[in-house]
């Protein structure tokens, strides 16, 4: 069941990423999905998901690994940086690289902090 849920969720993560690339141009679509994913994955793992670990492990793993694994993309991030550099767009490549790295770390921190805050308040799961 877990393998099927990972595949199902990976399909939808890919569909959402494709939709984002149709709304935004490269490399900004990759930046948007990666920053969104780095915010939402900690919320899933630390807030919405823990209750599922004991009852529905297959759903917890399916969404975390399948959806967020296919929605976010390190390989596209790296390819975007190389494309910008080979096109001579050094400044944009640098800005994109800094926004991706620093922004990703800040979004992950925000997701973890928000999950902890929601857990201490006894929020809805």
From the spread of the alpha carbons, the general shape counts as flat
Mean pLDDT: 93
**SSE string:** HHHHHH
- Give helix % range: over 70%
Q: Quote the beta fraction.
A: under 5%
Helix and strand content put the structural class at mainly alpha
How many DSSP-defined strands? Answer: 0
Unreliable runs:
none
Q: Main sheet?
A: none
Helix run count? 6
Radius of gyration, taken over Cα atoms and rounded to an integer in Å: 16 Å
Description:
This protein has 125 residues and is an all-alpha fold. 87% of the residues lie in helices and 0% in strands. It is built from six helices and no strands. Helix 1 (2-23) packs parallel to helix 4 (57-71), helix 2 runs antiparallel to helix 4 and helix 5 packs antiparallel against helix 6.
């Amino acid at each position: 069941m877990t393998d099927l849920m990972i595949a199902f969720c990976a399909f939808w993560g890919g569909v959402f990423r494709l939709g984002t690339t149709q709304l935004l141009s490269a490399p900004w679509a990759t930046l948007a999905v990666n920053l969104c994913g780095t915010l939402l994955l900690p919320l899933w793992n630390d807030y919405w998901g823990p209750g599922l670990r004991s009852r529905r492990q297959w759903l917890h793993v399916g969404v975390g690994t399948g959806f967020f694994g296919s929605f976010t993309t390190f390989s596209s991030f790296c390819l975007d940086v190389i494309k910008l550099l080979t096109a001579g767009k050094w400044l944009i490549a640098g800005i994109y690289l800094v926004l991706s790295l620093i922004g990703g770390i800040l979004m992950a921190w925000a997701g973890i902090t928000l999950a902890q805050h929601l857990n201490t308040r006894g929020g809805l799961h």
